[in-house]
Structure formats: C-alpha cells, structure tokens
Amino acid sequence: MELQAKNPRPLSLVSEVRRSSAPSIRSFQSSETAVSRATFASDTDHKRYPRPKQWFPTFLRPRVVGAIIALTLGYATAVEFALWRSQYHNGWRTRGLEQFGSVNFLKSVLPVAVVMPLVMLYDSMHELLLQLQAHVVLSKGRAKARETVLLSYQGGRFSTIQTALINRHWIVLSSAVLSMICLLLSPLASGLLTTKPAEVQYPNYMVTMKKRLGLDPEILTLEHFAAGAGYAEAAVYHNLSDPPFVYNLHWAIAEFVVPPKPSYAANATVIVPTVAVETECNCDQADSVDLTLASAPGGNHTFTGKWYDCTITLQIPDEGIDQYGVETIMECPSNAAQPPWFKPITFWFFSSEIKQVAMVFCQPKISVYNVLVEADLGTGLLKEVTVLDQNVPKNEMSGEPMNGRGYNG
C-alpha cells in the first residue's frame, strides 16, 4: 500500500514517502514513519513567501526621534547665541524692514513661524502614540478590554490626560503634557523679539558750509531784524518750532548742507563741528521803582527806575487806563561811551486802575563759540548744541564793530 500527498499547498501537511526497491507489503510501522516526517511548507519555502515587514510610524523611529531632539537642542542653542549676540552688538538693525510693513508685526510673526514646525512635530508624535497605545498593551498579554479594544483617546487634551492617569499609561501622559505645553507656549514666542532705538555711528561725512559767521551788511535796513521779531512774536502766540539753524531761540548756527537721511534708518542725526552765536537778552526787573502820581487830573505821572548803575526817569500823561513803552537808558556810567543802539533799554508798563508801574531792563549780549551741532536728517532742525570753547578768530561780531554787544532794537 502506498501513501500519496493530496492538494500539495504551501500551508498543508505533506507526507514524504520513500519507495522501496523491491515490491512488498508496507507495514504499519513504515506508515507511521512516513507520517512522523511530515513538515510545513512555510518552513522550507520561507524565501519564496517572506514574512511582511513590521510597520512602524516614521516620527516614532529612533533615528527620527533623535533628530527631533537634536533639532530642539539646536533651537535652544540658537536662541542663547542670538541673545548673546544681541547684547554684545546692541541688537540687530532693521535695515529698512519698516518699508515693507510694521516692524512690530514682523518681529511678532517671525519667532512663531520658526517655532511652529517643531510644535507640529511634537503634536504628530503625540497623535501616533495615542494610536499605538492599545496595540502596545495587547502585545503584553492579559490586557483588559477597556485598556485595549475599548480604549479611546479622542476626547481632547484634558480627557487624554485623565484617561492616561486612570490607566497608568505614563508615556501617553508625558506626551500629552508636553504637547499641551508646546501649544500653549508657542504664541508667547511672539514676545521674544523687541524693538528699541539704538545709536549707530557711521563713518565721517563731508558737510558743506553754505554761510560763514559774520555781520549782515544790510543790518542797518532792519529788514532781517523785523522778520526775526515777527517770527518770534508768531512763535509765542502759535507755539511754532525753531526755524532752521536756530536752536532754543538764542543759538544761531552757521548754515550747512544737511545730508540726506538713509532709507533704512527710522531716524538719523548728523553731528557737525561749526561756529555758533549765542544771543542773550540779559533782561531783569528793576532794582527799584519810585512812582509819583499826578497831583491833578490831566497832569503827568512820574516814575524813576534804577538797575545797577543805570537810572531813568519818565513822565507820562494821566490818560487812558494802561500805558506801556520802551526807552533807551542814557544815564549809565558803565556804558557812557557806547552808541545809543548798544545802550541798555527798559520796558515799562503803567496801570492807572491799580496805580502801579513795572519796569524790565535789558542789555543784549552776543557770544561766539566753537560748538558741536546735532541736526535731524529728516527735518533739518537742530536737536542739540554742545559748547566746545571760545577760541574763535576775531570777526565783525566778536571784534569791531560789535565787540560782543547786541543791538538793543
């Protein structure tokens, strides 16, 4: 009797039978031997039918996880290096970025845009851990249904943390907490950069002087004086700013060509060594004022004012309510040799209602200095005047005919 294999498929049991050289009746023992040597086709044909490769998420592979950790450390190192460089170099220049939009908007968006890819990587790793957790528990054996087939981590971050605590899934718990921290802190990256004005010095720039310091040859026509007086009055009434090359209403600077403002600078100034004239009104109230009222209606009021060694006596008619005027003080021993236009003057004001008189004495003075002038490149106006010295060559103002004296107007 001979045994034959039927349906020889890869996963079926097959008997190997050895034929005898001589025909004989096979015993039951030879039949058992043939059956006992039966094998599985999958063991012998494993190369023909290979086992499927094990699937594993890309973001959870050791090499990828190591790369993400290295990227996180790189982010931290880059932030520390950027902080050190910012403190060492006093920040970074905007280099004209304000032309493309608000600098505040750009400095808020840029850190968030850099951090978000890392946050998305951590969030993807967290989602994959949630999907694999049930299979991890099943692979250990003796798992409960609520921890495997009935397990669900689809209720949000807080629900995931609560479920992970109940089931003691510590890896899922750590991943959920880390992912939540990343999501909460990523908007705070918008405050990582700040903007502040910083002083940056550029190489020297050649500045062209347009005018020199000296006495206007048309000063006696009083045209420029009248224009200056009108502007001064308008500036008081309408709160006007100083005109170009005039600072704080008493500094006059030799005019120069202001360089153009760089396009990448929010504001810029230029510091120029030049010559400046300081004009001081040198005004003060009278040391004493004596008033003698008119003895009869229609008479004259008499008042005498004294200031240092100067004395002036004025008589005004008893007319109207308020009277005022300007007078040159001729009786000054210290200024006896000066022309009338250089002598002190007095501003007086008389009120017939309260029967009082007030007097202010002024003696203008002019000083010439070497100065450093800081001018705004955007507006051309002066921002600061720093005095260096008075070693200025003699000219019409510091020497003859002015000798540092100012016209009394």
Describe the model.
The chain has 409 residues and is α+β, with helices and mostly antiparallel strands. Helices cover 30% and strands 21% of the residues. The protein has seven helices and 14 strands. The chain has a five-stranded antiparallel sheet, with no helix packed on it. Strands 6-12-11-10 form a four-stranded antiparallel sheet, with no helix packed on it. Strand 13 (365-376) and strand 14 form a beta hairpin. Helix 4 (103-140) packs antiparallel against helix 6 (170-185) and helix 5 packs antiparallel against helix 6. The radius of gyration is 50 Å and the shape is elongated. It starts with 12 loop residues before the first strand and ends in a 20-residue tail after the last strand. Residues 1-41 have low confidence and may be disordered.
Describe this structure in a few short sentences.
The protein is of the alpha+beta class and 409 residues long. Helices cover 30% and strands 21% of the residues. β7 (288-292) and β8 (300-307) form a beta hairpin.
Low-confidence stretches: 1-41
Radius of gyration: 50 Å
The helical percent reads 25-40%
Spatial arrangement of strands, main beta sheet: 3-4-5-13-14
Please report the total strand number as a whole number.
14
- Average pLDDT number: 77
Taken as a percent bin, the fraction of beta residues is: 15-25%
Rounded to the nearest angstrom, the distance between the terminal CA atoms is 149 Å
Described by strand count, sense and barrel closure, the largest sheet is:
5 strands, antiparallel
**By helix and strand content, what is the structural category?**
alpha+beta
- Helix tally equals 7
Q: What form results from the Cα inertia axes? A: elongated
Helix-strand sequence: EHEHHHHHHEEEEEEEEEEEE
